[in-house]
Amino acid sequence: MTIKLFSLSRSFDKPLNIANKSFKSRFILGTGKFKDLQQTQASINMSSVDIITVAIRRAKHAKYMGKSNLIDGLNWNKLWLLPNTAGCTTAEEAIKIAYLGREISKRIGQVDNNFVKLEVISDPKYLLPDPLGTLKAAEYLVRNGFTVLPYINSDPMLAKHLEDIGCSAIMPLGSPIGSGQGLQNIQNLQIIIENAKVPVIVDAGIGTASEASRAMEIGASAVLLNTAVAKASYPYLMAEAMNLGILSGRMAYLAGRMNMQDKAIPSSPVQGMVYS
């Protein structure tokens, strides 16, 4: 029964399209904070994701410059690499790391992969993205052929500016990164989703499957998360839960929610009721 239900949802849906690439899964998983490579691999397998994101600046070097143990240990015939610029505090740093990420993508055989998750975070306490640095770096990277997915606060105007300069998706946070606070500014997220003509991927702050499902129910194109899986008691189990939550939220969005009413309405018809 479950398999039939999933098949039905896909018959109503279409793939997640980012720039010139299509993906079946709307779940994107980060690869930081896991205990070890084995735990990372198990969580990726249970998540059924197509895209994973790797912090290029923090990757541990292995065989030669530009490759990491994590990158060596994953099957890139089945996964799409989304390099990210985590750890960069200025636009200039982020641009340099974006180029390194693109080089790594080509080394693993993804020669057409120009994707970059753009993060510019100059605030060490709250880890909120720098809007000016992000916009500056995005303009440069778009001009130089990158498929830019910028990580931003839930700012509808900044989201629109980034879309206008050619970003291929917008990635507003649900709440501060790693906090697990869920969707703290849902009205702004809804405004961003309503006005965007590119995919909107809710990124950061998701703590559990119901929150991921809620993001999809309001119309997000996808959800990216990391800490909620990596720091769960059983990460691989949480990875599967997140996958199912995202799928159910997407199904609910496609199905269309019933209208809310001020008063109760009986479920059974009152016409023809038998009275004693």
Automatic annotation (TrEMBL):
Q: Which residues does the Swiss-Prot or TrEMBL record annotate as the active site?
A: 117
Alphabetically, which GO biological process terms does the record hold? Answer: thiamine diphosphate biosynthetic process
Q: Where is the Thiazole synthase ThiG domain?
A: 18-269
Protein family per UniProt: Belongs to the ThiG family.
Entry keyword Phosphoprotein: no
In this chain, 1-deoxy-D-xylulose 5-phosphate is annotated as bound at: 178, 204-205, 226-227
Origin organism lineage: Eukaryota, Rhodophyta, Florideophyceae, Rhodymeniophycidae, Gelidiales
Give the InterPro entries listed for this entry: Aldolase_TIM (IPR013785), Thiazole_synthase_ThiG (IPR033983), ThiG (IPR008867)
Name of the protein: Thiazole synthase
Q: What class of enzyme is it?
A: transferase
Gene for this chain: thiG
Tell me the pathway: Cofactor biosynthesis; thiamine diphosphate biosynthesis
EC number in record: 2.8.1.10
